[in-house]
Amino acid sequence: MMYKIGVDLGGTKTEIIVLDENLNVIERKRVPTPQNNYDEIIHTIINLVSDVSQSISDFSLGVCCPGAISKQTGVIKNSNTQCLIGKSLKEDLENKLEKNISIEN
Question: Domain 2-104, CATH 3.30.420.40 — does that match?
């Protein structure tokens, strides 16, 4: 079974949801978003994904985050979460998770 994992990275909270192939909610968690620390944000997302994916073998992963993302460079611009500006969140998460992800605002 293919699952879908979604991460909503917000200014105050980071939420993760796991859906089955029929889009039923399997699991949902919410934690505070670390403030002004990009590395802690990456760590938080990785921990959430690792936690919810322990019992599932195949999943796709999507992340939404504040700010515009350059299609040419993948760098985040104009984010209310200042520590994201100038960062390649997609690339950094893909490298750490060793998985392709989709990312949107």
Answer: yes
